[in-house]
Structures are given as C-alpha cells and as structure tokens.
C-alpha cells in the first residue's frame, strides 16, 4: 500500500481561512436564460413564456427611495399603480413615475399579505456587490450589467397574473413592450 502525501503551498492557506467573494451572473429558472450576450447581464430568467417577476406592493410609499426603485403602490387598494422612482419634479408625484396609467384593485391580494411587520434589520438580497447601502428587498448593483426581464410572447400565456408582475413582451421582431400588471389590468410601454 502506498502513502498519500499532501503538501499545501503557503498561498493556499489564506484562501482556506478567508472568505471568497465571487460575483457572477444569476439565472433564475434554468441554466440557459434568454440573453445572448451573458457578459452584460447581472440577473436573468428562464425562457418559460408564462412567468414574470413580481415587485413588492406597499401600503405606504418609502420616504427616501433610491432612483430606480420599482413597486406597486397599494396605498389605496382600489387605485393601485405600478411605479418607478425617478426623482421627477412633476407636482404631486413626489418623484414617482406611474407606469400603470390606470387604476387596479389589489384588495383581494392584500387580504393574504401580512400587516404591521417591522422590517428593521431585515435581510436583503444583493446581487453584483458584497454590500449595499440601498434600502430594498432585492438590490442589483453593477456599473456595467443589467437585469433581463422574463420574456413572454403574449401576456395571455400567464395564467392568473399577480399584482405587481412585470414582463418583457416579444410579440414579433418589430413589436416589443414592457408590460406591468396593476392587479386588474396590464399596461404596456413600447420603445419609440
């Protein structure tokens, strides 16, 4: 029987003791995703054609949001609106831009949502960086990478969409739209 001898070089020992941080792309739902150029993507989703992502819906708008914050404003449950914080200065918006353009009802959905939960010290998921000062449930931070939304060919492929759902609709090579669901209706944004 032969003896096995293992020698560790001095440079390996610090690697075993200190934590390693690896930053890479995250694909949710499969190993392939939808983006052809993976170098520019931080977060993407499987090509299922029938699922979207759901942004948080809130009963009170955050007091000091970060630009780029997406949410479903459920402060009035029968007039829910999908919004993005872009620091606009239009009177009455408080810096929020309405992506819905129409009211939606989330009354039934709010019945199953917890009320009065203290979020102080709550954990957040950060992709792209080890830490973040941004206040959010899911924070994507990258100077040169983006999130690829779930892609569908038709929102009708999504059975029972949830309030706050967002997808990218690829109808055809010439017709593509961002779609958001406010609890009652889909709203579509087409690039000009």
Brief digest:
It contains 2 helices and 14 strands. With 192 residues, it is mostly beta strands.
Coarse structural class: mainly beta
Q: Report the C-alpha radius of gyration, rounded.
A: 21 Å
Mean pLDDT: 78
Largest sheet: 5 strands, mixed
Number of helices: 2
Helix content: under 10%
Order of helices and strands: HEEEEEEEHEEEEEEE
Q: Could you give the count of β-strands?
A: 14
Could you say which overall geometry the principal axes of the C-alpha atoms support?
globular
Walk me through this protein's architecture.
It is a single chain. The chain has 192 residues and is mainly beta. 6% of the residues lie in helices and 28% in strands. It contains 2 helices and 14 strands; from the N terminus they run αβββββββαβββββββ. It has helices at residues 12-17, 107-111, and strands at 26-28, 41-45, 53-54, 57-58, 70-73, 81-85, 96-98, 125-127, 138-140, 146-147, 151-152, 165-172, 175-181, 186-190. The strands form 4 sheets. Strands 3, 11, 12, 13 and 14 form a 5-stranded mixed beta sheet that branches. Strand 13 and strand 14 (186-190) form a beta hairpin. The protein is globular and about 40 Å long. Mean pLDDT is 78; it is low at 1-23.
Topology:
Elements: H1 12-17, E1 26-28, E2 41-45, E3 53-54, E4 57-58, E5 70-73, E6 81-85, E7 96-98, H2 107-111, E8 125-127, E9 138-140, E10 146-147, E11 151-152, E12 165-172, E13 175-181, E14 186-190
Parallel strand pairs: 1-2, 2-10, 4-5, 8-9, 11-12
Antiparallel strand pairs: 3-12, 5-6, 6-7, 12-13, 13-14
């Amino acid at each position: 029987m032969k003896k096995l001898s293992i020698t560790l070089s001095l440079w390996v020992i610090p690697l075993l003791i200190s934590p390693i941080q690896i930053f890479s792309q995250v694909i949710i739902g499969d190993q392939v995703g939808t983006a052809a150029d993976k170098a520019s993507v931080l977060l993407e989703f499987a090509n299922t054609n029938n699922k979207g992502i759901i942004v948080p819906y809130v009963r009170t708008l955050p007091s000091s949001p970060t630009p780029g914050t997406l949410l479903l404003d459920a402060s009035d449950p029968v007039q829910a609106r999908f919004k993005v914080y872009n620091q606009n200065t239009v009177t009455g918006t408080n810096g929020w831009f309405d992506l819905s353009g129409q009211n939606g009802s989330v009354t039934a959905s709010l019945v199953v949502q917890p009320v009065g939960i203290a979020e102080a010290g709550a954990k957040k998921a950060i992709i792209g960086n080890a830490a973040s000062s941004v206040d959010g449930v899911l924070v994507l931070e990258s100077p040169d990478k983006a999130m690829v939304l779930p892609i569908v060919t038709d929102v009708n492929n999504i059975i029972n969409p949830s309030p706050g759902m967002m997808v990218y609709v690829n109808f055809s090579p010439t017709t593509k739209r961002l779609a958001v669901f406010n609890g009652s209706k889909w709203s579509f944004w087409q690039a000009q």
